[in-house]
Structures are given as structure tokens and as C-alpha cells.
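hey m, so remember when u said the C-alpha cells were messed up on ur end? i reran from scratch. heres the input so u can diff it against urs
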Amino acid sequence: MKKITVLLLLCFSLPTVGEGLPDLGDISQTVLTPLQERQIGQQSMLQIRAGKQFLDDPEINDYLNQLGYKLVENSAEPSLGFEFFALDDPSINAFAMPGGFIGVNSGLLLTAQSESELAAVLSHEIAHVTQHHLARIIAGQQNNGLATMAALAVAILASRTNPQAAEAAIVSLQAHTIQKQLDFTRTHEQEADRIGLDILQKSNFNIHAMPEFLARLQLATRLLEGPTPTYLRTHPITSDRIADIENRVSKQPYRLIPDSLDFQLARTKLIAAHKTVPDAITYFSDALDTQKHGNPIAQRYGLVISLLRSGNIKRASLELPILRKLVKNNPMIETLAGKVRLAENNPTEALAFYRTAVQNFPQHRALIYDYAELLLQNDQAETVLDLLIDQLVRHPSDTRLYELQAKAYALLGKILEQHHALAYSYAWQGNLYAALEQLEMAKQAGGNFYQLSAIESDLRELRELLGTQGKP
């Protein structure tokens, strides 16, 4: 399969833009086609993935996608290929990009007091996508090509996290005049609220969580010194708007929907990562001792994570059986159990554990990563290649999977395949010059007619693209 060609067609083969913007309610005549929206979003994602704030944690991102798709199923476009991802950013924010790409800051994940609150924010962002709000803002720049619009999309993202960075990005586009268009209008927000509430209710979450979350942010703004939370700046909110949401939900009974364990574990993982190791151990130990607040399963999970980070393998090994006794058949807990097995430095037992765990949770990427690394350490490269086949089909933009594939090929002495896999990894990271270099090295390694033909085709695509984009 010509994966680089497909990538380039998705992200960089940009047709011209039509004219005219419809009314908000008319989504059938949007100036950008669904394919064009996807192209803008995909090209923007290449830059986001290459950024320092992209949170490359498969468990947190997979959790967001599981929750997100539960909501998407009840949206106006359930077949749209959404992608949810996290950023390591303490500000309370979430944002939608054209084509179904939705980002969530770690600060928002930690601020949400329930899974329904997080689902409320995601539902709101899903509505922005299905109503094509951001696409219309971008498409309003009718004299620009889609490549410029993709850069504008990244500038909009920057405006939601760092206004100074946004200003630099906009200046580089020579587009000072669009600054006022970066934020959603009140009409956009009201429409996203209305549709988001409908999605939230159909997905069996507590719809009262939406006004509760917004009201708490607004109260925090008044009580605390400092700038307004990012979410309130980029999603303009007024007392009238909160009142409107409250009026809509007041007609429905209050339903306390329990949080999923994965929501608790994802938040706990972030809490552990954002604290120093000693502070994290103290925090989770105290929570377990007092038993005053929180989920004891999640707290013990956080404690084992923190003990591993501290190098206290003995205590982590003692705490782990207690955790696994509390809950069975959870992939995040099994992934942590695997890490403890690896730290105990018993390869035979670790291989046996991972063999069973991957059979039980064949789509949990964090397990796949660790198992593949362990197999490579034990010279089982062929098994790694077999393991990655299905994963690459399901996650074609996962750069770590390509890196693991490249390591396996290197162990087998398959140099052409090694460099070809690395080319895919660099291409999905947006580093096209490094991808080109890897393809050249693959070509020099030599191969059969079909392999070299595929390399030549990918080289031609990259050279044409880089020729149109100029030198770095």
C-alpha cells in the first residue's frame, strides 16, 4: 500500500475554493466540501503532532476517542471520522478543528468534576464540527488557497492557548484583518449549546453538567485574580447564555450518572504526571489512608504509577495485587501491571504476561507498544511485525508504530523496509524533508522491482510537494 501517497493526497492535494457562505442552518451548501475540511484539519494536525504540547499518551487519547465516539454516534454526522486528542496544557480549554479533529487540554480534564462535564464540553465541540462553524470562519478568506487556510486553522488553535503565538502566526500569513474572526460568535455558541445538549442527552449523560461546568468557570473568574480562563475567552459566555442552558435543562429531571473507571484512571494518570514523585506518593497514600474523597481504585492506581516512577519496585509489586483484586479486565490497569513486570526484570514472566494481556486487549495500544519493545529485546522481530499489521491499519498516523516496525526490520537486516517505515513516521510528524531522506536511503539499499517502484512513486510525490512549498 502506498501510505505516503495516501497521506499526501489527504493532507496536501488542495483544490481551489468555491464562493459564497450559507446561513448557519444550511449545512448542505457549505463553501468547503467535507474532503476539503478534512484536508485542512489533517494538515493542521501534522503541525499539532509535531508541537511540544501534543500529549503523546495513547491511553489518554484512546479514552478521549472512546468517550468522543459514544457522543458522535448521536450527532448529526455519526459517520464523520472524528479524532480526539489531548494537549499537555494546564489552561482550561478544548477546541474543534475542521474535519472532526477535537483537542482537549489536560487542564480541562483535571478541572472537570465528572465524566458528564467532560462529555458536555466534547458534545459542544462536536456540534461546532457538525455545524461547520470553524470551517466557515476559515472559508471566509475566499482569496486564499486551502494551504493558507490550514495555516490559519493552526493560528486559530494558537489563539486559544497563546495569544502572542497567534499574533506571530497571523502576521506570517499577512492576515491582520482576520483577527476579529478567530473566536466563535454568540450565534455559533448558542447553536453548539443547543445541539450539544441534544447529543449529551441521547448519549445518556447528565445534561445538567453543561451549565454547572460553565457556571463554575464563570464563578472562578470572579473569585480568582488573573486572566479569564481560556475556555471562556474562546467560547464567549454570558449570564444570559448560562441562563438559557439552565432553562433548557430545568425541564428535565436531574440524573446522577456514575463516572466510568477509565475517566477516573485517565485523570489520575494526569495528576500523577503533573506532581513531583514524592508529592504524588504522599498525595495518593494520604487519600487511601483517610478514605475521605475520590475513587480508591484510581488512588491505588496513581500510587503504583508514582512508586514505579520513584524506582520503588518492591512496594509497587506489593500494591499491584491489591489493585488487580479490586478490578479485573481493565486494559489501563493491565498496562500498569505489565510495566511492573518489566521493572521486576524477569523477561520470561513478562513475555508470558504480555502474551495473555494482548490477547485479552488486542486494541490497547499502550500494551502493544510495551509488548513490541519487549519482543525486540528478545530478538523476536517477526512476531513484532505480525503484531503491528492490524494496529497500522487501525492507526495509520501512529508514528510510534512505524518506529517499532522500523526497529523490527533493522533486526532482520531488511534495510529498505526499515527506512521506508521511518519515512512514514517522519511524514506523519510533518517532517517531510526527513521522510525524503529516509526514502533516498531506502532506494540506495536496493530491493526488488515492486519495492523500488513504490519508493520511486513516494519520492516523486514528496519532491513535487516540496517543490511547491519551497525550501526550508
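this time it looks ok to me. The chain is about 65% helix and 5% strand. if urs says something different then somethings off w ur setup not the seq
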